[in-house]
Amino acid sequence: MIKPSLGGSTRSIYLGLACLSLSLHLLLAFFCLSVLQTACVLPTSSPASTPTRTNSQHSQSISHSSSSSPSSAASSSRKLPTIPRSEEHHPLSANTSSDATGTRKKRIGAGKGQRVKSLSKLEELFKHPLYNLPRPQLQDDDWLLRLKTNEHGSDGESEEEEREDAVLDESQWHSASGQEGYDKAAWTSKAETHPPWLRFHLGISRWELYDRKDPIVAQLTHYLATQRVLGAVQKTGGTQLKLLMSFPNHGQALLKPMKQSRDAETDVNLFYFSDFERHNAEIAAFHLDRLLGFNRIPPVVGRLINVTSEVREITSDKKLARTFFTSPAGNVCFYGVCEYYCSSEHPVCGRPHELEVSLAAMLPDLSLAPRRSWRSPWRRSYSRNKLAQWQKDPAYCDTVKQKPPYSEGTRLVDLIDMAVLDFLMSNMDRHHYETFEKFGNETFLLHLDNGRAFGRHSQDEPSILVPLQQCCRIRRTTLLRLRILSLPAFRLSDVMRESLLSDPLAAVAPVLSEPHLSALDRRLAAVLQLVEVCEQHHDDVINDDWEG
Ligand SMILES: Nc1ncnc2c1ncn2[C@@H]1O[C@H](COP(=O)(O)OP(=O)(O)OP(=O)(O)O)[C@@H](O)[C@H]1O
Ligand SMILES: [Mn+2]
Known about the structure:
- The chain is of the alpha+beta class and about 550 residues long.
- The chain folds into two domains: about 140-360, no CATH class; about 370-545.
- The chain is built from 18 helices and 14 strands.
- Strands 3-4-5-10-6 form a five-stranded antiparallel β-sheet, sandwiched between helices. It has a three-stranded antiparallel β-sheet with strand order 7-8-9, with no helix packed on it.
- Helix 9 crosses helix 17 (about 490-500), helix 14 runs antiparallel to helix 18 (about 515-535) and helix 17 (about 490-500) crosses helix 18 (about 515-535).
- It is globular.
- It binds adenosine-5'-triphosphate and manganese (II) ion.
- Keywords: ATP-binding, Disulfide bond, Glycoprotein, Golgi apparatus, Manganese, Metal-binding, Nucleotide-binding.
């Protein structure tokens, strides 16, 4: 305060100084605010636009160093539960700027408080303890494949033991392929020399196909979406057209083409077994399975391919090449040779050359890792007028429960997990499922072939849930995950929308349209409701796979 004894001129000097200081402070405050805002916003948006590295700088046994903690690069991540990092860096996410969903808007565009909070719903979900449960300690025989290095080549193992195990012999890899265009393979026992597809294979365990937190999943999908295509031939097995694509470092992918517009719903008069396969269903199924915490579908990614330069001109498959033609609209089309829909009436067409496809990472070759195919007890009758046994007998589950492998272990609840997944995406085509032979009956079920899912959003198909309805049994961890996915904070449709944004095809159009996403929430509520009904009538509904 100014003392009353001070003269008038001194007072005005003081006043002037006060004004000057006030305006300087205001200026400073304004400047700081603008700088701080920029500093808060940029890191929030950057993970989504950071391209994922494809080269093998990070090995499987070495944890991925996030931008915020480079010093953590040396800690082991394969077996220890760690805070998820890879999900924070969405793979292949250059396209997320399309912002079809508003998820990112929420993060960066709505006031200062939210700008600072950068975790999205998906990141929050994967941080949840239910997605970070302690994993069983894995023994040597819990890995599908193992490396046999030259040094350990003659470690006294009997021939029989060697035959039982799928052994990748390092010495074979140095005999580089002489085929034109393929990289010389000089892989050693060091993980950093392995291409992404090989690290994926080496990471398959008894309980899951991949560890969600391992950066290899993002590296693998990026690899499949960007590598030069060296080969494209038809893949035999199954009924519809599929191609086997090959890449320079010997990786391969299973291609399913886009055959109809994404929003086309299945014709109500078609039997499910006559429905077209959808490329976006294969992509979405991989994301959904991962969101449910299963990790039982090989990584799948979308890609725009050039049907002329990446199929027609490079294929060695003469039968396939013969089916190419130019449509009246001037588009390059082909139809291949297969049981269903391989005719000029059902062509796969580029625009004029560009075609949307899904690419699924291939599992290890059957000669290295044989698989067993199991007929589903709730298999549908593939006849137009016959009912299957489970459709006629309400107590059918009692029969199933008595028969191996459903009478012990986790097989029954595994099958129910699969039924839940299939109901959510409305996949009626689960006639068989596969397991890795090596793991016997104590292992997870592979959820392969999801091309007939997501065909209809306006209708649900309760019969897919019959295994749950008839057996009234479900894993505790599955149920708890379903419950949190029904909460607004983690809503299934929201995390699914966000997860799918990381796919390159999201830049073209959303992988799943909004009606399909809302159908997921509606169906999830139906599953939870069915479990409630079960709990009202039975005591042993919950399979205690976790006592947390
Ligand atoms: N990612 C994969 N890696 C290796 N093999 C695979 C993969 N996906 C599918 N397969 C194998 O290829 C076979 C055919 O694939 P898929 O079932 O997707 O074809 P489809 O034409 O849809 O079959 P269907 O007509 O029986 O529905 C499968 O039975 C499976 O054994
Ligand atoms: Mn199929």
